[in-house]
Write a structure and sequence with these properties.
about 700 residues, alpha+beta, six-stranded mixed beta sheet
């Protein structure tokens, strides 16, 4: 017999794997409580007669348990023998099949099993609930058998609001058990159904931009020379934006019928029709809807087509993403059952480099490049950087979007003020404290089998728009200097200008085709660096910048850039603050060029090692992924070359406190042969890796 489902009820039940393992308990939750994020926890209790469900309320986690105890009392024996460390268990309820005069006055005896039940419930700080009406809960079909009280409820100890239950003897109908009900109080949560916004291309947006420009021009930028004056100027700018946004924003009601193309004309014509109820006014409203929708989507399609963006930009990418709600996250084999434990685990996962130390002597074999002059920033660098920005970006924490900055920077005085702030930041080696408060959204990585480990999630940093623009300009200048000095390794692709993913595909295709011309097959080994973004070592970064030939005050700026930050993590409606001094935010504009610079010494060391050992293999590298490419007439020979090369790469990464994700390592063979034959696997087990079977290519 399966589980009964209903559209207005959420069903929590364990899936039966065999016929002898069919479930005997289930929990239903009304969809009106969906916002409390109910979750089934088979990872804590995996028994067919026990259901454990959690939910969030008032930034805390609470638990519900439903039990069926058969005549062998297997569920109670399981709970007795299993260590379950959970707090805030509000209720245990179910059919316990125990006759005892503790809850049934008509029964003259006491059961030894009831003592074990009370010990179990006391361990969860629960007490036996007394019914307000003392009637049987189980009704016999046989007139010779008496009715019994075997359905029990245990409630949170010491709760004055929830200390009894009601037995509905008139509800059991054709069933043999009567339903039990109780009230569990929860803290009222306000689900926000409105948002504050400024409509694009509206009069309010025009007024907002005008007020910001006027206010920025009035900020004194003449005496920026130290940390305090910089912070003062940027705080004034932030207050100006916040104040003008509050002045011009509108409160928008969010409903299931909310549409991005709805404007004031709809409201006008709709109100007119509602007042007159005439057919002509209704037709006028329909024409307004049709024409405005057509104009809205035509403009959107044209913008995407002209900007050479993908068709996916037509889709809505900002819907709320619900995280997997099946298993609790584990840390050091311990379940994170408290919200503070969860935050601590996620923070450690995203910032695991804070306890790692790197020997600076590993850079000794890297030559020192000539120091290049870092000139003050120019207007053209800012206008060029902002021109290429995608206007479809969602608003940043500081309420600005790219189109706002494009309008603001058309005013030369505003642009010069921002350029002045940026130049002073580099000159004194200081990154503004306002930009060091980061908002980080935690989202699940796609297509994971299980989400019970923190590594199954990634953190995306949302930066202030002004800080993002300044970082973008600094990143462009960093890349220009590094490439001008020939510091960037020739095998580094993606994340750099004029070296995109398309270039990677072209380079690999060229390798394969040239090999076929020489009657050679191509074999590749793809690998991935684990946790590359949070593993970035700041001390190593400053040493590499010095090796790359950057001015000492640029090095000083970056030694301050990534330290003293505050991160506010968001997971659905929950949030928490942490201080952090390591890693680079995945989503930061500077992250790609910084990581590219940090990889340069490693790639030069790999090159030197392979040349010294006379191993003929090519490397393509793109951010945190690498590809080893070798060509020969024998796949067995190619596998041996890939094995030695991969071992060299893995050992050198260890010197940089980096690790390879063995489970994401893959091998591919490219051949022109059309005959069917078994391609040889690549055995990495002797160096701690897996046995890789070639993927189809």
């Amino acid at each position: 017999m399966g589980v009964v489902n209903h559209p207005i009820w959420l069903t929590f039940a364990r899936i039966s794997k065999t016929e002898n393992d069919y479930l005997r308990v289930v929990i239903y939750v009304n969809i009106r409580l969906f916002s409390l994020c109910f979750s089934l926890h088979k990872d804590i209790i995996n028994h067919r007669d026990i259901i454990l469900v959690s939910f969030f309320n008032n930034n805390d986690v609470f638990w519900l348990m439903n039990i069926y105890s058969d005549f062998l009392h297997s569920a109670l024996k399981y709970l007795k023998d299993t260590e379950i460390c959970i707090w805030n268990l509000l209720i245990i309820m179910g059919d316990f099949n125990i006759h005892d005069n503790l809850w049934d006055p008509s029964f003259p005896h006491q059961s030894s099993i009831s003592d074990e039940l009370l010990i179990i419930t006391n361990s969860f700080n629960l007490e036996l609930s007394n019914p307000t009406n003392q009637v049987p809960t189980r009704y016999s079909d046989n007139k010779y058998d008496s009715n019994l009280v075997i359905d029990l409820m245990f409630l949170h100890s010491g709760s004055s609001e929830s200390d009894n239950h009601l037995i509905h003897s008139d509800w059991h109908l054709t069933l043999d058990h009567a339903p039990l009900t109780t009230t569990i109080p929860i803290v009222e949560e306000n689900i926000n159904s409105t948002k504050h916004s400024i409509i694009k291309d509206s009069n309010e947006e025009a007024s907002f931009i005008k007020d910001v420009i006027t206010s920025i021009r009035n900020i004194n930028m003449s005496n920026l020379s130290d940390v305090s004056s910089l912070d003062r100027a940027v705080n004034e700018f932030t207050n100006v934006v916040e104040g003008t946004w509050e002045k011009n924003m509108k409160v928008i009601n969010i409903t299931e019928h909310s549409k991005s193309w709805w404007d004031a004309n709809y409201n006008r014509d709709l109100e007119k029709y509602r007042f007159s109820k005439s057919l002509e006014d209704w037709k006028t409203f329909q024409r307004t809807v049709k024409n405005t929708k057509q104009l809205f989507f035509n403009v959107k399609i044209q913008k995407i087509a002209n900007k050479k963006q993908g068709p996916w930009e037509l889709m809505n990418w900002v819907n709320k993403c619900k995280l997997s709600a099946i298993k609790a996250i584990k840390h050091n084999s311990q379940l994170c059952l408290e919200i503070n434990d969860l935050w601590h685990t996620l923070h450690l996962s995203f910032n695991i480099a804070q306890h790692l130390h790197i020997d600076k002597d590993i850079l000794n074999e890297i030559m020192m490049f000539l120091i290049s002059i870092w000139n003050p920033f120019l207007e053209e660098e800012f206008t060029s950087a902002i021109t290429t920005c995608n206007i479809l970006f969602t608003p940043s924490p500081d309420k600005l979007v790219w189109r706002h900055l494009k309008h603001i920077f058309k005013n030369k005085l505003c642009l010069k003020s921002i350029i002045n702030i940026t130049n002073v930041c580099l000159n004194i080696g200081y990154w503004l404290s306002h930009f060091k408060t980061l908002t980080t959204i935690i989202i699940p990585k796609p297509n994971k089998v299980s989400y019970d480990m923190s590594k199954s999630f990634r953190s995306i940093v949302l930066l202030n728009m002004l800080g993002k623009l300044i970082e973008k300009v600094i990143g462009d200048r960093l890349q220009f200097h590094a490439i001008s000095n020939n510091f960037i390794h020739q095998s580094q692709l993606r994340g750099l200008k004029f070296k995109s993913t398309v270039d990677t595909s072209i380079a690999l295709t060229h390798f394969i085709c040239m090999g076929w011309v020489k009657n050679l097959s191509t074999s590749t080994l793809a690998f991935d660096i684990a946790q590359f973004f949070p593993l970035l070592n700041h001390y190593l970064l400053t040493l590499i910048l010095g090796k790359a030939g950057f001015d000492s005050w640029v090095v000083k700026f970056f030694s301050n850039y990534l330290v003293g930050r505050k991160i506010q993590y968001f997971w659905n409606s929950f949030s928490s603050f942490f201080n952090v001094n390591i890693g680079v935010g995945q989503g930061s504009v500077l992250s790609l060029i910084i990581l590219a610079l940090c990889l340069v010494p490693f790639l030069h060391m790999v090159d030197n090692c392979l040349k010294n050992l006379k191993i003929l293999v090519s490397i393509l590298y793109f951010v945190d992924n690498g590809l080893l490419v070798v060509q020969s007439k024998s796949f067995h020979f190619s596998n041996s070359i890939l094995f030695y090369s991969y071992n060299i790469v893995a050992n050198l990464l260890l010197k940089f406190s980096l690790l390879v994700k063995y489970l994401k390592t893959e091998v591919f063979h490219f051949t022109r042969s059309h005959s069917l034959f078994n391609l040889p696997p690549l055995n990495l087990s002797s160096i701690g890796g897996p046995i890789l079977h070639p993927k189809e290519s």
